[in-house]
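Internal tracking record. Fields below are filled automatically when a chain is submitted to the structure queue. Please do not edit lines marked as system-generated. If the sequence contains nonstandard residues, flag them in the REMARKS field before resubmitting.
Queue: standard
Priority: normal
Entity type: single polypeptide chain
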Amino acid sequence: MTKTLSRKAPASKSSAAHRSRRKPAQATQESILKAAIKVFAKHGFDGGSTQKISKVANSVDRMIYYYYGNKEGLFIAVLEAIYARFNEAESDLELDTNDAVGSLRTIVEFMATYYQKHPEFVTLLNTENLYRGKHIAKSAHASEYSSPAVAVLAQVLKSGASRGLFRSDVRARDVYLMIASMGYFYVSNRFTLSAFLGEALDTDAACSDWRKFVADAVLRTVSVDSNARK
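SYSTEM-GENERATED OUTPUT FOLLOWS
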């Protein structure tokens, strides 16, 4: 027994040392990723050089290549990170399955507000769409990011349908696309639309009115009748 315990002790020290070494390495990796989000959001993929990212991260270029392989690998990691953050924020939503209408309004409010509070999310996705999604298509996790959001929405719609409030023939995927497109388009085009319409669309009041409009539009789409929207 004594020998067994003596063999475990060094292993424990080694494990502790390994964790100790991982902390600064993880901090460096996260610092680079955080800097890359800022730089790519500001300068795009082409203009977001590794030199700029290293400077913002207070690191060196070789660390980018060490952790992410190359600039494309880092950009893919950035796209994965912003999607993951969106999913994490959504997972914190408190939804009452017995209140399908209220839960659906909460989801709409969350998505529209998230786009408005995280313009870098919209900017980075705009950049990736200019490349026709070629970077995110190389991600091994791309298909994982929409699944939780659609699954939560599906549960809410199913709950509403079971209570006779929502139509049973509406797909969660379609409703998700409806919410996302109305919220995303508003934020991504707010400057040009403000000039075109002659009114500021990025004020708190304007954004609040739009979120309510989107929620009402979604509820009209999925509701069996107008009473279900109340």
